[in-house]
């Protein structure tokens, strides 16, 4: 008498796309450096935000993401997500521009101090800097 066995296979969850891991890493890095507020750390964090935004953009372009986003139920949420992404990009651009302007003004002030043009020249440049803000 021969025994009959039926074999079943377990269906394991599929591995996540590598871009999802990159997004997680970027988020963790940003969370870890959240408390620092020096100009270099702000610049580094803005660069990290840009990297995160680029990863999310890549994720949104993947075929399986496009298929999921095509469903009518999720259309409103997708629009909100895209609007939020654009607002985040605008904020990052504005912050980066402000940081670059501050850096340029700081370098100009340091140059004036090095040239030792005197207190009057420094006061004039400082007034220009304050009015530009």
TrEMBL record:
Q: Which InterPro entries match?
A: BPS1_pln (IPR004320)
Task: List all membrane-crossing ranges.
Answer: none
GO terms of biological process kind: root development; shoot system development
State the superkingdom.
Answer: Eukaryota
Give the matching Pfam families. BPS1
Which PANTHER family does the annotation name?
DUF241 DOMAIN PROTEIN, OS06G0725500 PROTEIN
UniProt name for this protein? DUF241 domain protein
Native organism is Gossypium australe
């Amino acid at each position: 008498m021969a025994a009959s066995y039926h074999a079943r296979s377990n269906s394991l969850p599929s591995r996540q796309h590598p871009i999802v891991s990159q997004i997680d890493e970027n988020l963790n890095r940003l969370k870890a450096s959240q408390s620092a507020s020096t100009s270099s750390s702000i610049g580094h964090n803005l660069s990290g935000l840009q990297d995160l935004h680029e990863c999310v953009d890549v994720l949104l372009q993947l075929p399986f993401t496009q298929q999921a986003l095509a469903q009518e139920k999720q259309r409103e949420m997708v629009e909100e997500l895209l609007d939020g992404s654009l607002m985040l990009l605008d904020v990052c651009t504005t912050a980066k521009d402000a940081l670059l302007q501050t850096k340029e003004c700081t370098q100009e002030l340091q140059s004036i101090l090095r040239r030792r043009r005197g207190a009057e020249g420094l006061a004039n440049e400082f007034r220009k800097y304050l009015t530009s803000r």
